[in-house]
Amino acid sequence: MRSCGIIVEYNPFHNGHAYHAQKARKVSGAEVVIAVMSGNFLQRGEPAIMDKWQRAEVALQNGVDLVVELPFAWAVQSADYFAKGGVRLLQALQCDALCFGTDDETTFDYQDYGNFFKTNQALIDQKFQMLPTGLSYPEKMAAVIRELYPQSEQFPPNHILGLSYAKENADYLRPMELFPVKRKDSGYHETLLQPQKFASATGIRTAFFAGETWQTFVPQQTVELLQHGIDWTDFWPYLQYQLTVDSLARLPQLYQMKEGIEHRLKQATSAETFSAWLQQVKTKRYTKPRLQRLALYTLLQISADEIKREQEQTLLHVLGFTKAGQRFLKQERKNFTLPLAAKMGQAESQQHFLTTRADQVYQLVTGVEQNFGRTPLRF
Fold first, then answer.
1. Fewer Cβ within 10 Å of end Cβ, the chain: N or C?
2. DSSP states of 325-336 as a string?
């Protein structure tokens, strides 16, 4: 069966996501659309507004055939590692194509960029190391790419992810065929909701928490399932406690806790809300997504060694499938290069131990079991 992969978060699943799934099937000629989806915590260091099972359920009723979970160790990362994990899972599934959204309005050749990056890795690394230390990682990488690959001049969020997908994909002996799809209507961070147009997930979340109208921008299944939305407000008491009890000697042992940033994080512990805390610790160098990821690593007490271990023992955890997705699993699973997990038992949870830990903390807020006893959704 010809397959096309999409790497997603669905926070929440909206009409633009349904369009993406339909477009992926059409442009790639796929018989099955496979979504590698972040679990309960997301790339920018945020809790998902709906749990992973709810988001998978909506996806399977709106154009996706198979949903596989992207483990925490890959999901809550900068764009490069997020892309690395997503591409790795699709490659393990022997996926034929990858379709992703892009903000780029030109006919940018992502396949060529991937090959360029692979061929010039040493030079790119050298140029990167020469840049001032005061710049953030995205700023440094954008500067290097502008110099060495001038075809890419602007770096909006989806284009950055597209570049990362292309780079990772080129490293495989059998690269997937790439199908970029131009993002329609609202931009990634656009909060304005315009009637008869696709809205961004950011805009929908903003409207939801403000008590404004958002329902017309999502499928009916999202409307039915999105009742009490989850955000950092729900987890602030737990993070505040952890920052209080962790010493300045302990905090630097956590993943990505570098350059003395732990002092800023701890000094702001008395903030009344997560938003106030974030505002106090944010700097030009430490962006909001980076600080939110640090907050999650602190909340969950994650070390660099643990990130590495979970990445090394990645599973293909299936959250759900349609009849086409089930047929794909039966026909192709003998060719998969990573173990397939239809449900999370003790053995599987020990491999995806960070994902399990994160789900247990998420469950403190929702009260809904996220792993044990859960079997794949079927549609």
1. N
2. HHHHHHHHGGG-
